[in-house]
Amino acid sequence: MEYEVNKTDWVLQLGDWAYWSDERDVNYSATRASDFIMQYMPVFAEVTGDER
What we know:
alpha+beta; 52 residues
């Protein structure tokens, strides 16, 4: 949650390295189709206890 999530748009980032890029950098808000497999979000919430 700290380094893998774009806090502006609340989407997954390409990697923890993108966290350090500038918000204007194309890699900051870039996504992959696999980042939107929503069926796994409840599983992540259950495993981590983090409802975000």
